[in-house]
Design a protein that fits this description.
It contains 5 helices and no strands. The protein is an all-alpha fold. The radius of gyration is 30 Å and the shape is rod-shaped. Helix 1 runs antiparallel to helix 3, helix 3 runs antiparallel to helix 4 and helix 4 packs antiparallel against helix 5.
Length: about 180
C-alpha cells in the first residue's frame, strides 16, 4: 500500500513538473515571438523612415497651401482678380483632391489624425459654397456688401479651416516624431 501511495505521489510530482515545465516553455516562446515581432517592426519602420518623413513634409506643405488658398486674404484677392465661378470650382476640386491624398496618408500611418483631416472638409466646403454664392450674386448684378451673409460666412469658414489645419499639422508633427 505504501508503494502505491509513493508511486501516486511521485506520479503527481512528475505531472506537476511537466505542467510547470510546459508553462515555462510557453512563456519563453511567447516572449521570444514578441521580441521577433518587435524586431521586424523596427526593421520595417527604419526602412520606411525616409519615405514617411518625406510624405509628412509633403502633407505639411499641402496643408499650408490649402490654408493660404482658402484664407481671408484670398477672399480679397479673388474678388479683386474677378475670379469666375468656374475658376473657383477648379481651385476647389484641385485642393479637394489633395486633401484626399493627405487623408490616404494618415489612414495608413496615424488614423486619429486622418479623422482630423476629414474635419477640414466641412469649413472648406463652407468657404467654397459661400464664396461661390458671392460670385454668382455679383455675376447676376447684385452689389455685395462686405457684411453680406455669404461674405461673413466665408470669413468664418476661412478662420475655422485655418484652425483645423493647424490642429492637423500638429498631429502631422507628432507622426513625424515617431519616425525620427
Amino acid at each position: 500500500m505504501d508503494s502505491i501511495i509513493i508511486a501516486s505521489v511521485s506520479g503527481l510530482f512528475a505531472l506537476g513538473g511537466v505542467i510547470v515545465s510546459g508553462w515555462v516553455q510557453y512563456k519563453n516562446q511567447k516572449q521570444q515571438n514578441q521580441f521577433q515581432l518587435e524586431t521586424e517592426y523596427l526593421k520595417i519602420k527604419e526602412s520606411r523612415r525616409g519615405e514617411i518623413l518625406a510624405q509628412c513634409i509633403t502633407c505639411h506643405k499641402l496643408l499650408s497651401e490649402i490654408q493660404r488658398e482658402f484664407s481671408i486674404t484670398n477672399i480679397v484677392m479673388f474678388r479683386t482678380e474677378n475670379l469666375t465661378v468656374i475658376e473657383l470650382d477648379e481651385k476647389f476640386r484641385k485642393q479637394r483632391a489633395r486633401i484626399d491624398e493627405t487623408i490616404a496618408f494618415f489612414e495608413l500611418y496615424n488614423q486619429p489624425v486622418a479623422k482630423n483631416v476629414k474635419i477640414i472638409l466641412k469649413p472648406m466646403f463652407e468657404f467654397w459654397f459661400n464664396f461661390r454664392l458671392m460670385l454668382e450674386r455679383e455675376r447676376n448684378g447684385e452689389l455685395m456688401q462686405p457684411s453680406s451673409d455669404a461674405d461673413v460666412n466665408a470669413h468664418i469658414a476661412a478662420e475655422e479651416l485655418s484652425n483645423a489645419i493647424l490642429h492637423v499639422q500638429y498631429g502631422l508633427a507628432q507622426t513625424a516624431q515617431e519616425f525620427i
